[in-house]
Amino acid sequence: MLRSSGLAAVSAAILSMNRQLEVRDVLQTIVSSARELLDAEYAALGVPDDHGGFAQFVVDGVTDEQWKSIGPLPRQHGILAAMLQEATPQRLTDVRNDPRFGGWPRAHPELADFLGMPVADGEEVLGALFLANKRCTPSSGSAPDEREPGPGGEEPATDGGAEPVRGCAFTEEDERLLRLLAQHAAIALTNASLYERSRELTIAGERARIGHDLHDAVAQKLFSLRLTAQAATALVDRDPARAKSELHEIDRLAADASEELRAAVVELRPAALDDDGLVATLRTQTQVLDRAHTAEVAFGTEGTVRALPAAQEEALLRVAQEALHNALRHASASHVAVTLTYGAAGARLRVADDGRGFDPQAVRKAGRHLGLVSMRDRASGVRGTLTVESEPGKGAVVELEVPGG
């Protein structure tokens, strides 16, 4: 049976893992949680690729400088291969004495006692999690190693090449704790992978929508531009005044097409949300749209700006983009105001325009949603609340409230 203190530690580690949404963050949380839980000097988790190596390899207990000096990522061989291919735990008193041990790079820290556990979802092995060098404590019954550790937790070299002194080893209870942690780690890792995949599909959907808009808007204007140019050519000799009018129309159509292209290019750029944050990203996009369109587009914030969970920030950004798209391309708005308000309970996005407006009920019945379904899906995905207020001739207001996370 697991001690109550061990269960409490596992519970805390599981909660920490489930707070993460990005695969890399989940991997790092798993590794650091396992190392802390079992009091080991080193921990690592490798996610295999299809070419005998690792797509990702995360470590804890090694400094950045040490990690760089170690060199390329390890391959799937030896004990790591056994965990991945046979899906079996590995608990060794000294990994260096195992016949499968093949050595390690010169800069690699010295490992002795070893505990490895496959991270599996059913029959699919997602990764190999392992710990090394169980720390000695007074309660273990063995005297602790009194020498000072090195900068990454490694022990100093001994005289004459002697092996490091080890007085501890991983126990059966350690193995049970790590197995339980690995089971929940598989769930967290699967959820994070699904989340990242859904983001990829969302981006693909956004690009498809932009491509459709580009085709509809720009292609129509270019077709009109061509017809008008043909008419001006035919009129230039027999009706110069009318030909001049047609040339003015060509100029207008060309300007409109150029505006549509600039807006499309802006939307096709990769979102800077991860690098710049929500406020900077929204400010940049509204500034570019303000320059690209004849409408005035303004952005402002209220309250104390703070970071929100990634899923919530993405939902706020995408709803803002959809509402701006509707206001500028469908509603013929001359003024659009985007406001992001931060409060103790969360954040609220408000996009208000003075365009032609619409009847939400009539739009829904006619099957023309203006992105309303997409916006509502994004809101529900982050436990948010979306409200849309509009009526013909009186503009529209779109608001999204999300909890504080």
| End-to-end Cα distance | 35 Å
Characterize the overall form.
elongated
Report the strand count: 10
- The helicity comes to 40-55%
Q: What characterizes the major β-sheet?
A: 5 strands, antiparallel
Structural class: alpha+beta
**How do the SSEs run, as a string of H and E?**
HHEEHHEEEHHHHEHEEHHEE
CA-atom Rg in angstroms: 30 Å
Number of contiguous helices = 11
Chain-averaged pLDDT: 78
Strand numbers in spatial order across the main sheet = 2-1-5-4-3
Low-confidence stretches: 139-162
Note down, in words, how this protein is organized:
The chain has helices at residues 4-18, 23-38, 64-70, 78-86, 172-235, 240-268, 273-276, 278-292, 310-329, 360-365, 372-381, and strands at residues 40-48, 54-60, 90-92, 114-121, 124-134, 296-302, 335-343, 346-353, 385-390, 396-403. It is of the alpha+beta class and 405 residues long. The chain has a five-stranded antiparallel β-sheet, sandwiched between helices. A hairpin with a 2-residue loop joins strand 4 (114-121) and strand 5. Helix 5 (172-235) packs antiparallel against helix 6. The radius of gyration is 30 Å and the shape is elongated. It starts with a helix and ends with a strand.
